[in-house]
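Page 37, continued from 36.
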């Protein structure tokens, strides 16, 4: 399976990182080895001193598709979930400054937390879906899919121009503002549409 991630899909997050607003979706990939095993803690890697959480709505692809039209995109997913894209921000800043790829700061082992998936029909309007991340019981990210620059179906149509989507692929759809650093013993808890979807302890 592939983990396809969308960067810079929320305007306020673009502003907080002082990035440039893209004209098209920004795509990067994580290998399947990036998936954090279920119910396991996240260990801060030794190559970063500024490790950030980024909560995101996830889409799980349910069948093979290529050059998918936006109007047909809903046929390619039944479940929506929540995840965390862990990012070595210090390493990312160095790579960006040199115009180099992001994989080392985004695709390292354990960097993709994939929480519980829910049937999409149980979540209501997917274009107005609330999701949150709390750190040590303090709300740090409070997002809504209505603030996406590109909505879920638009992303599926766009991504499928470049990559054949296959059953089991997961799309990380971008993070809202509020990203920040984690340290040892932090506990992160994420919710989507009021449902607890993930919990991770930092080691």
């Amino acid at each position: 399976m592939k983990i396809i991630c969308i960067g810079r899909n929320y305007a306020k997050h673009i502003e907080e990182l002082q990035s440039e607003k893209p004209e098209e979706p920004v795509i990067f990939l994580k290998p399947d080895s990036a998936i954090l095993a279920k119910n396991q803690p996240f260990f801060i890697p030794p190559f970063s001193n500024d490790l950030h959480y980024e909560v995101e709505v996830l889409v799980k692809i349910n069948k093979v598709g290529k050059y998918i039209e936006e109007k047909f995109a809903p046929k390619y997913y039944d479940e929506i979930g929540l995840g965390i894209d862990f990012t070595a921000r210090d390493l990312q800043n160095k790579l960006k400054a040199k115009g180099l790829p992001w994989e080392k700061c985004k695709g390292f082992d354990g960097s993709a937390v994939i929480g519980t998936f829910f049937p999409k029909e149980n979540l209501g309007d997917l274009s107005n879906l609330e999701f949150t991340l709390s750190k040590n019981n303090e709300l740090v990210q409070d997002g809504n899919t209505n603030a996406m620059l590109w909505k879920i179906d638009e992303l599926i149509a766009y991504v499928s121009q470049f990559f054949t989507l296959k059953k089991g692929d997961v799309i990380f759809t971008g993070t809202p503002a509020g990203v920040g650093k984690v340290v040892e013993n932090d506990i992160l808890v994420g919710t989507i549409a009021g449902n607890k979807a993930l919990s991770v302890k930092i080691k």
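The radius of gyration is 16 Å. Flag for discussion at group meeting. The chain is about 15% helix and 35% strand.
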